[in-house]
Amino acid sequence: MSYFSDVERDLVVAARTEIAAGVVALDLVAHNGRDLPAWTPGAHVDVILPSPAGAERVERQYSLCGDPADRSTWRIAVLREDAGRGGSVRLHEEVRVGERVRVRGPRSHFDFAITPGTRYRFVAGGIGITPIRAMAEAAAEAGAEWTLDYAGRGRETMAFVRELSERHPDRVRVHAADEGMRLDVAAVCAEADAATAVYVCGPARLIAAAEAAMPAERQAALHVERFEAKEFGPPVWPGPFQVELALSGETVTVAPGQSVLEAIEEQSPATMVLSSCRRGTCGTCEAPVLEGAVEHRDSVLTPLEQAEDTVMMVCVSRAACPALVLDL
C-alpha cells in the first residue's frame, strides 16, 4: 500500500456526465492543476462526504475508470442506488461541476498487470465494468490476447457499453438481459487454461458463479472484486480475545460481537487505524499480523492471501486463537 493511499485531498469536479441510465461519471482534478498520484487498473478511491455536526462522515468507494496515463484527471462512475446507504444519491443530487469533493487514495486490492504470454478473460456485471474497463484498455494497448463479457439488464443501463463495443468489436461480448443474451459464467471459466487469467467484478451472484465454475487447481488465476460483503456463520473463536498492539505496547480485549477495530477505537484511541466501509469490502483498515491465527471474514483478500495470515481487515476479521499481535 502506497503513502498516497492514506492521503486525503480536495478535488474539483471538472465534468459531470450521465453515461448510462442511473450512472453519472465525475471527472476530478486538482484545484491547482497539478498531476494526481499515479494509479493502475483496478484501483479505487474513497469519496468522503460531509455529514451534519456530530454524525459520522459518509465514505464510499469508487473504482477509477479513466485513463491511468492521464495524471490530470481521476474519473469515477457512480450508480444511483435509491435503496443503498445514501452516498450515491447524494453524489447524484448534490455534487455539481466546480464543487470540491474530498477523496482519499488511490489504493488497490484488485491488482492488474500485463504478464507476457498470459491471456485475459474479463467478466463484468452492471457497474462492475468500472475497474474492468481500465484493465481491458490496458490489455488492448499492450497487444495482449483478451476478451470481455459484459452483462447487464439492458444496454441503456450499461456504462461504457457503446464505447467498448465500437472500439473492440471482436473482443467485447455484450449480454443484455432484455435482448435475451444471458451470460454463461461457467463457459467463460471453462475457456481459462493454464495460460489464462480471469478477472471478475459485479454482483455477488456473478462472483459466486465464477468461483464455483473455476476448478480448484485454477482458483489462483481467478481475480475478483466485490461490492457486497460475503456472508459468514458464527466465528470459530466465539469468546473474547486479546490483541497486542506492537508499536504502542498496549493490549486491547475484543469482546464477542465487537470488531477488532471497535476495540482499538474504544480502548486505544491514540492508535490510528484508517477505516471506511466497516464491512470488509474496501481494504482501508488492513493491518499487518505479527503473531496468531486469523479468522478472515473480509471480502477483499484472496484465499491464498488469507492463508498467509500476514494481514487482516480489522473491521470484520477476528482471532482464531486466544491472542493476536498486530503491527500497530
UniProtKB/TrEMBL annotation:
<dbReference type="InterPro" id="IPR012675">
    <property type="entry name" value="Beta-grasp_dom_sf"/>
</dbReference>
<feature type="domain" description="2Fe-2S ferredoxin-type">
    <location>
        <begin position="241"/>
        <end position="328"/>
    </location>
</feature>
<dbReference type="Pfam" id="PF00175">
    <property type="entry name" value="NAD_binding_1"/>
</dbReference>
<protein>
    <submittedName>
        <fullName>Oxidoreductase</fullName>
    </submittedName>
</protein>
<dbReference type="InterPro" id="IPR001433">
    <property type="entry name" value="OxRdtase_FAD/NAD-bd"/>
</dbReference>
<keyword id="KW-0408">Iron</keyword>
<dbReference type="InterPro" id="IPR050415">
    <property type="entry name" value="MRET"/>
</dbReference>
<dbReference type="InterPro" id="IPR001041">
    <property type="entry name" value="2Fe-2S_ferredoxin-type"/>
</dbReference>
<keyword id="KW-0411">Iron-sulfur</keyword>
<dbReference type="Pfam" id="PF00111">
    <property type="entry name" value="Fer2"/>
</dbReference>
<keyword id="KW-0001">2Fe-2S</keyword>
<dbReference type="InterPro" id="IPR017938">
    <property type="entry name" value="Riboflavin_synthase-like_b-brl"/>
</dbReference>
<keyword id="KW-0560">Oxidoreductase</keyword>
<dbReference type="InterPro" id="IPR036010">
    <property type="entry name" value="2Fe-2S_ferredoxin-like_sf"/>
</dbReference>
<dbReference type="InterPro" id="IPR017927">
    <property type="entry name" value="FAD-bd_FR_type"/>
</dbReference>
<dbReference type="InterPro" id="IPR006058">
    <property type="entry name" value="2Fe2S_fd_BS"/>
</dbReference>
<feature type="domain" description="FAD-binding FR-type">
    <location>
        <begin position="6"/>
        <end position="113"/>
    </location>
</feature>
<keyword id="KW-0285">Flavoprotein</keyword>
<dbReference type="InterPro" id="IPR039261">
    <property type="entry name" value="FNR_nucleotide-bd"/>
</dbReference>
<keyword id="KW-0479">Metal-binding</keyword>
